[in-house]
Every structure is written in structure tokens, then in C-alpha cells.
Amino acid sequence: MAFTGHSRAAYPANSYIKNLSDTxxxxxxxDQQDLLPNIxxxxxxxxxxxxxxxxxxxxxxxxxxxxxxxxPSCGIILLGFGAGNIPYSTALAKTLDLVHEHGHMVISAxxxxxxxxxxxxxxxxxxxxYHVIAGGRLTIPAIYARLxxxxxxxxxxxxRRQRWLNNVSQPGTSIKKR
Length: 178
Hints:
This protein is α/β, with parallel strands linked by helices. The protein has 2 domains: 1-44, no CATH class; 47-167, Rossmann fold (3-Layer(aba) Sandwich). Helix content is 39%, strand content 11%. Helix 2 (58-68) runs parallel beside helix 3. The longest helix has 22 residues, at 22-43.
């Protein structure tokens, strides 16, 4: 619960519980207070990187992702051009697989104001076969906030990915199964 009364973060309309009993509210608050020291400790190590994708040189992006392989699990926002397009290369595809294996969470977003991305858009769809998650219509700050919350709240990369899917139920934000 992101705050009392909502059963899921991101506050979807169907998650609000109008008549939350005082006892249940207090239990939730106590549970959240117990988690606070761990979240504060995790905040020192939580990192989110925004990588701008350029259409002319895919090697720059590949080098940036390779450099993150030696870092602890983090969030990575790939800022594609247009509707989230990222130039394809075999080396980049392999690097995205490695990034996933190292526990990093990669989200695709658009550099365009008011833009959005979808895993069904053909030009950039290749990336979703390599564990990149489409950010959908979420803004860059919303993606950043969600990634930060997931990094602070959940220890395992698998759990973070699962929570991302549970909380974002927009078309075009799914994780492709291989």
C-alpha cells in the first residue's frame, strides 16, 4: 500500500478501500514503520540511470550498459527516440541479456514530451525480447519514482519485475515471455 486506504501502489481507481477500519489502518501503519529502517538503508545504495539513445551510434549505448554490469542492481531508463525506438545491434541485444542477468531493471521511455512507448510498435519492439519493459504512457519522472520505490521496497529483481506488472496495467506495458 502506497498510503493508507490503497491496496496497490500507483493508486489505480479500483484499489481504494473507502471503509478501512481503525485496527486495519493501524496494522498497516505498524507494518510500514517496521520496514522503514530497511528502506532508509537501501536508499544509500539505490541508483537509477537514464541513458539517452541516439540513432547514429549504438556502440555508445552498449558501452554505457556494459559499464553498469559491475554495479549493484539498479534501475535503468532507456530514453529512446520517437515512440521509444532504440537502434538494434547484436552486441546491444547480448548486453541487455547480461544486464537482466545481473539483476538490473531496464525500462524503455520516450525522449519526446508527452510521448509514450508500446511493446507493439514494430520499430522498437526488438528490445522487449531482451527483458526491457515498456514504460507505456508513464512520464519519465513517474518511471523514476516507480523504479526508486521498487529498488527500496523489494530485494529481488524478480519481485521488482512482478510488482511493476501488478501495478501498471496499461496496454503496451507488458513483459514479453521468451
